[in-house]
Design a protein that fits this description.
Shape: globular
Subcellular location: Cytoplasm
Largest sheet: 8 strands, mixed
CATH architecture of the domain at 3-173: 3-Layer(aba) Sandwich
Structural class: alpha/beta
Pathway: Amino-acid biosynthesis; L-arginine biosynthesis; N(2)-acetyl-L-ornithine from L-glutamate: step 2/4
Organism: Enterococcus diestrammenae
Mean pLDDT: 90
Radius of gyration: 17 Å
Oligomer: single chain
CATH class of the domain at 3-173: Alpha Beta
Strand order of the largest sheet: 5-8-2-1-11-15-16-14
Site (Transition state stabilizer): 7, 214
Function: Catalyzes the ATP-dependent phosphorylation of N-acetyl-L-glutamate.
Order of helices and strands: EHEHEEHEEHEHEEEHEEEEHHEE
CATH superfamily of the domain at 3-173: Acetylglutamate kinase-like
Low-confidence stretches: none
Number of strands: 16
Length: 251
């Protein structure tokens, strides 16, 4: 059972066009199983500003106090996820919105509560639940939230959630959709990058800013057995493909 995990960005509706859904239909006709992980950072920041809450970002992660966590849950589960699942349902898919509270789908732990508050990292994904749904041709639509063993909710980077889901399911491909068509080096978009080249790109500071956590998630997924990771602004074009095997950096 080949599985493809797709992480869509915070402005989810930007990715969900006709070409996107045509590709999902194509994959399903090939017998592939599809899992969606959605972000929501844009909408969370927008809501926080509207409610008079300060947005604080450290190392690409949103500092999450109790108030920010409640806003994050409200936006992800009450705004973004219904938007995404509704679009899937309208296209004839059996989509099902899931969160950490769905049979402990995503267990997590705080990264550094003193500095980041309720920001977490994934410790375990409920593989059995996902496999049951995938066997029935459902498309799980997962919010990037975790829950601790003690029941504390956590805000988790969506790229990391997608990476851990892909690793748990031993996915054949992980797509990390963003607002740029891949990784750029000296004015050219790279087509193929090996694990060794990833370290080189980071060391030489060719990759910086928001692309760094994506690249770290991609590397983690490959090391955990995911066959390939694609960073792109859509799922129908080439983008930058990352592989565990040794490839020369190819423009």
């Amino acid at each position: 059972m080949g599985t493809i995990v797709v992480k869509i960005g915070g402005v989810a509706s930007d990715n969900l066009d006709l070409a996107f859904f045509s590709q999902i239909h194509y994959w399903q006709k090939q017998g592939k199983k599809v899992v969606i992980v959605h972000g929501g950072g844009y909408y969370i920041s927008e809501m926080m500003t509207r409610l008079g809450q300060e947005v604080v970002i450290k190392n690409g992660l949103r500092v999450t106090d109790a108030a920010t966590l409640e806003i994050t849950r409200m936006v992800l589960l009450g705004q973004v996820q219904p938007l995404v699942t509704t679009k899937f349902l309208a296209e004839g898919f059996h989509a099902l919105g899931l969160s950490a509270g769905s049979d402990q789908l995503i267990l997590g732990e705080a990264i550094n509560e003193n500095e980041l508050g309720f920001v977490g990292q994934v410790t375990k994904v409920n593989r059995d639940l996902l496999e049951i749904l995938l066997e029935k041709d459902h498309i799980p639509v997962i919010a990037p939230l975790g829950i601790t063993a003690a029941g504390q909710w956590l805000n988790i980077n969506a790229d990391e959630v997608a990476c851990k889901v892909a690793a748990t399911l031993q996915a054949e491909a992980l797509y990390l959709l963003t607002d740029v068509p891949g990784i750029k080096q000296q004015g050219s978009w790279l087509k193929k990058v090996s694990l060794a080249a990833v370290d080189q790109l980071v060391a030489e500071e060719i990759v910086t800013g928001g692309m760094l956590p994506k690249l770290n998630s991609a590397k983690e997924a490959l090391l955990a057995g995911v066959t390939s990771v694609v960073i792109n602004n859509g799922i129908t074009a080439g983008g930058t493909q990352l592989f565990a095997e040794e490839y020369a950096v190819e423009a």
